[in-house]
Amino acid sequence: MVLLGQQTALVRHRGPKRRVFWSAVAAAVTLALAVGGYTIHTYDERPPWGTDIAYEAGFLQGNRVRHYDMTGERVRDLLGGGCARMEAEGMGGRKATHNPALWVAGCLDGAAGRPSRHQGLAY
């Protein structure tokens, strides 16, 4: 006896054939490896947003010096070429190696008390 609304037999859903499934998986893996390889080749060990990292690291360094300098002597030194000298001596750290010129620009902006270029929603 079959009641209304009930299925009389279980129906098995068949997915794609194994060959089609594994071919699609292989294509997806190949595409992912190609995109990853291109990204690594293009940016080497530097992240794609390395310029932002360099600028912000310099900005923070200059801003810290400005806030902790009671006499203003250290700020005058930074604005008079101290930022470039710090970067040339390797005091900018690893983040400065992403883009040394932007690290120096960020350091000068921070030391001068200017706002960071990257403040706000759109920069």
Question: In words, what does this structure look like?
Answer:
It is a single chain. The protein is mostly helical and 123 residues long. It is 60% helix and 0% strand. It has helices spanning 18-43, 50-68, 73-88, 100-112. The model has no long low-confidence stretch (mean pLDDT 84).
Report the principal-axis shape: elongated
Low-confidence parts lasting 5 or more residues at pLDDT below 50?
Answer: none
Question: Structural class of the helices, strands and pairings?
Answer: mainly alpha
Number of beta-strand segments: 0
Distance between the termini: 71 Å
Largest beta-sheet details = none
The percent of residues in helical segments reads 55-70%
Report the order of strands and helices.
HHHH
Q: Estimate what percentage of residues fall within beta strands.
A: under 5%
In round numbers, the mean pLDDT is: 84
Count of DSSP H/I helices: 4
What value does the Rg take, in angstroms?
Answer: 28 Å
Q: What descriptive keywords fit this protein?
A:
60% helix, single chain, elongated, 123 residues, 0% strand, mainly alpha, 4 helices
Annotate the secondary structure layout:
Blueprint: H1 18-43, H2 50-68, H3 73-88, H4 100-112
Tell me briefly what this model is.
With 123 residues, the chain is an all-alpha fold.
